[in-house]
């Protein structure tokens, strides 16, 4: 469990690495484009739904403006809830660059033994992770609603769910490149995996830090897997 803190510290120190900065720039740009595209699509669909339900100028003056505002707020609110899914889906396609940069600097022997994943394998892993995230978060929704009266209950439920999911995704980004070499199972314990996912899930709730979180998580997972594997 103590391996989490050194892994995160090492990952933070390497954020200034040009190779990592390039990945960060690309992933942030793609994430923002996807986010804006989904927001526009969500606004359009919600606007048409509210219009079909009768919210228009025929109902009262200014209804069109109110409908547009309500649609925009609902679309952005929904996307805020699925930000993690979008960000992690994007980073799946750049994860190899982050992992390679960390391994080249700190674990050259492991880097030379790693296998490269095909675009199809990366896409499959990303879509599978996104599907799990949507499914588990929807499954947790009834419990979150039951705990709504506690104020903090829903936030804790979704944090715990996403901590478990993120920990697994981040570990797999690294381990899939090395699971053919010698070991049958990843050396990272479930507790360490959960704590790593929890730290990244918490960062994703912080404005601006949420852009760094996926890249930082991938780098930290690389350190964690290799440091545990060497023991």
From TrEMBL:
Topology versus the membrane: Multi-pass membrane protein
Protein name per Swiss-Prot or TrEMBL: EI24 domain-containing protein
Compartment(s) of residence: Membrane
Chief place where the protein resides: membrane
A Pfam family: EI24
Keyword field: Membrane, Transmembrane, Transmembrane helix
Keyword Transmembrane: yes
Record organism: Alteraurantiacibacter palmitatis
TM spans (from-to): 23-46, 66-83, 134-161, 199-225
């Amino acid at each position: 469990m103590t391996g989490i803190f050194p892994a995160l510290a090492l990952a933070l120190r390497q954020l200034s690495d040009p190779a990592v900065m390039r990945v960060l720039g690309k992933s942030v740009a793609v994430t923002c484009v996807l986010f804006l595209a989904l927001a526009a699509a969500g606004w359009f669909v919600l606007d048409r739904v509210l219009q079909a339900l009768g919210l228009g100028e025929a109902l009262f003056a200014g209804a069109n403006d109110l409908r547009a505002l309500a649609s925009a707020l609902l679309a952005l609110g929904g996307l805020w809830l699925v930000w993690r899914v979008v960000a992690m889906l994007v980073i799946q396609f750049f994860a190899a660059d982050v992992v390679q940069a960390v391994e080249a600097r700190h674990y050259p022997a492991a880097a030379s033994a790693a296998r490269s994943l095909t675009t199809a394998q990366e896409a499959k892993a990303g879509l599978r992770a996104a599907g799990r995230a949507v499914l588990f978060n929807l499954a947790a929704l009834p419990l979150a609603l039951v705990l709504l009266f506690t104020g903090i209950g829903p936030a804790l439920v979704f944090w715990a769910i996403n901590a478990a999911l993120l920990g697994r995704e981040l570990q797999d980004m690294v381990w899939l490149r090395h699971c053919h070499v010698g070991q049958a199972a990843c050396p990272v314990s479930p507790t360490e995996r959960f704590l790593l996912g929890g730290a990244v899930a918490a960062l994703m709730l912080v404005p601006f830090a949420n852009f760094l979180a996926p890249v930082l998580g991938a780098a930290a997972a690389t350190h964690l897997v290799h440091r545990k594997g060497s023991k």
